[in-house]
Amino acid sequence: MIKDKVYDIVVIGAGPGGIASAIEAKLAGIEKVLVLEKADNHSDMIRKFYKPGKRVDKDWQGKKFEFIGNVTFEECSKEEYLEQMDKKIEEAGVKDKFLYNHHVYAVAKNSDGLFEVGADKEHGVILAKKAIIAIGRMGKPNKPSYRFPPKIRPRLNFNLDKVQPGEKVLVVGGGDTAGEYAYGLVDMDIGCDVTLNYRRPEIVRMNPTNKSILLKYADEGKLKLKLGVDIESVEPYEEEGVTPPKVKVNYKDGTSDIFDRVVYALGGTSPVDFLKNSGIEVNEWGEPKYNPDTMETNVPGLYTIGDVVTSQGSIALAFNHAYLAVQDIAKKLKG
Ligand SMILES: Cc1cc2nc3c(=O)[nH]c(=O)nc-3n(C[C@H](O)[C@H](O)[C@H](O)COP(=O)(O)OP(=O)(O)OC[C@H]3O[C@@H](n4cnc5c(N)ncnc54)[C@H](O)[C@@H]3O)c2cc1C
After folding, report:
1. For 55, phi and psi rounded to 5 degrees?
2. Looking at residue 222, which CATH number applies to its domain?
């Protein structure tokens, strides 16, 4: 239905911020809008984290908020709030703008200045003139199903932040992030001994560029590939004077190996990684830098709203942010 179409706005996340963005865009006369949501319904964070019957406050945590845009809500229970949102989406005529079960990992600007937001067989490449990131703060990277023994947890990571020069590192995963972490570590030239482990015998989920760099580096002996075998468990490898202990990785084929660090790239993203991967500058608390009058980030045309910009967010604040972002976008699309 939307194959290779260029949208005016693509919104990532269908929480309060994403819903308000879609409605504000409609009211501003912007029709070509798509909201991509990883869950199978809107307001997923609220469905999952609010207790049944919880009162939804407007002035959340005592902070007074005035609505500045067109989207508002009446204080009520969780269930009534969700009904209010269903009704607002329906009445604004934006129900068909929401695409569920669609996880986005980053928003990248291509050489035509358009934002490219993932691509899959069904929907083709999703392109947009402007993008609004409304992913909240609750995102988490996926974890493997086996246990992480507490002793070695500091050595089990989900990004490269903690990798030290000279370490023996295992990167686990077969997607683009795993590939980029593995060859990225080689490119950093900090003396790391890098292995990539993927449970399938072939790399099938990586884009062709990442795949070819990875395979070339493997051919040249710059990194090792351990393909076609999954990890059974990880356990501490005790050595005198080494704390925390190194990680003994036990594979399902009965082999094992010792690593200083294991970096998991199994899909799912933390909000900070999402922002960084999209080229947005973040401060020491992982909050994006943005213009508070327009919500635009350092990447022109890319906006961040709601909880992802602040740890003191609320529904009303997310609604207000959406209004500011869409007003700015409407002005720029016209101009
Ligand atoms: C327990 C609890 C109680 C609260 N009570 C109140 C209250 O009474 N009143 C109030 O005003 N505020 C309350 N808040 C805060 C309020 O819920 C948030 O400020 C608000 O939901 C923020 O909206 P958002 O759209 O920025 O983010 P979220 O509500 O977190 O929505 C983000 C959406 O993006 C989706 N998403 C995330 N990552 C991706 C991705 N990579 N690809 C695609 N989709 C993605 C998520 O599934 C989610 O649907 C409460 C918060 C909590 C945790």
Report:
1. -75, 135
2. 3.50.50.60
